Structure formats: C-alpha cells, structure tokens
Amino acid sequence: MTINKTSDVGIAVKEAISKANEKLDVAEAEMIISGGRGMGSPDNFSYLYEISEVVGAAVGASRAAVDTWEDIPHSMQVGQTGKTVTPKLYIAVGISGAIQHLAGMRTSKYIVAINKDPDAPIFGVADYGVVSSWEDALPVLKKELEKLVLD
Ligand SMILES: Cc1cc2nc3c(=O)[nH]c(=O)nc-3n(C[C@H](O)[C@H](O)[C@H](O)COP(=O)(O)OP(=O)(O)OC[C@H]3O[C@@H](n4cnc5c(N)ncnc54)[C@H](O)[C@@H]3O)c2cc1C
What mean pLDDT, rounded, does the chain reach? Predict the structure, then answer.
C-alpha cells in the first residue's frame, strides 16, 4: 500500500494512475468510481459521472451518500447492505472506509482512495492513497485517464 501525502496533488494522482496501469490496463479496465458523503452534495457526483464517461466506468456510492441525498439512488450503494463489487479498478472518493463499505469492495483488484483525512480507514485497504480533497484531485484524475484512453 502506498499513501502519498505530498502537497502536490497532481504528482500524487499521476502516480496513482501510473501504478494502477502497471497492474492492469486502465484504459481497458472494468472500473467503478464511487462517491461518499465527502462529495458534499449530490450535484458534485457530476464530476464522477464525467470521469466515468471517459473510461466507461460505473458510478457507485456509499450508504451515507445514498441515505443523505435522495438524488443518489439505492441501486448505487456498495457495501454490506448494498452491492458487492469486484472491479479491476475501484476508486473511492470522499468515502471514509467503514467496515460495511469495505465488505462490498475490498476484493477489487486495485483500489485507489482519495480522501482529505490521512487517517481515513479506506487507506487501510487502498493499494494507492491520495490524501487530498476531491476538488483538487478529480480534475487531474480526469486528465490522466483521458491521456490513457487516447494513447
Ligand atoms: C447495518 C449497517 C449496514 C451498513 N451498510 C453499508 C453499506 O452497504 N455501504 C456503506 O457504504 N455503508 C454502510 N453502512 C454505513 C457505514 O457504517 C458508514 O456510515 C458509511 O459507509 C459512511 O459513508 P461515507 O464514508 O460516505 O461517509 P462519512 O463517514 O461521512 O465519510 C466521509 C469521508 O469523506 C471525507 N471527505 C470530506 N470532505 C472531503 C473532500 N472535500 N475531499 C475528499 N474527502 C473528503 C472525510 O474525510 C470522510 O472520510 C452500514 C451501517 C450499518 C450499521
């Protein structure tokens, strides 16, 4: 597991994607990008959908996101009382990593976590952790994934 605590989020996200790409062809990978309550509002899930369109990913959510915002349907919930998923690449954004969430995604092949709290439990299962707000990290992530898909 690598947790990148650099203040240069661009470098951290680039490295996360490059390491993931070493293990699997990210441009071809079956991928899920999930948002939690840390996304702040259901409208901000649009950033996740934009990224999902770049790589043909599905968008998931934590139970807190689903319970808090009625615009985020229960069908998106990953975890003990939601769906169990095993994508090649799982990107958790603003998700703390409660045990009930981990129960549904910890067998993903490669896990990248973006969370502004360096002590968030999600980093315990992540192959690569980026300590950052999603507001800083997602634009870089989108750009890096676009490069991989276009290459
Ligand atoms: C019986 C039972 C079953 C459950 N089943 C499930 C289940 O199936 N799935 C599930 O997910 N949960 C389930 N839960 C709920 C679970 O315990 C947690 O409450 C839930 O997973 C928390 O969701 P969260 O991580 O999105 O929210 P929070 O715990 O509120 O975490 C939000 C995270 O976002 C981070 N953050 C905040 N702002 C930003 C930002 N700007 N940028 C980056 N990071 C940010 C914070 O540091 C924090 O780590 C269940 C609970 C029970 C009791």
Answer: 93
Residues 6 or more apart from 58 whose CB is under 8 A from it?
31, 32, 33, 52, 87
For the full predicted model, state whether its pTM sits above 0.85: yes
Q: Which atom of ligand 1 is nearest to the CA of 134?
A: 42
Q: Which domains does the chain have, with CATH numbers?
A: 2-146 (3.40.50.1220)
Residue type, 42: P
Closest-CA residue, ligand 1 atom 41, reads 133
Residue 104 has pLDDT above 80, yes or no: yes
More confident residue, 145 or 27: 145
Tokens linked to 7:
């203040």
Q: What is the DSSP string of 76-123?
A: GBBSTTSB----SEEEEES----HHHHHHHTTSSEEEEEES-TT-GGG
Q: How far is the CA of 141 from the centre of ligand 1 (A)?
A: 22
Instruction: Please provide residue 115's backbone torsions phi and psi, each rounded to the nearest 5 degrees.
Output: -155, 140
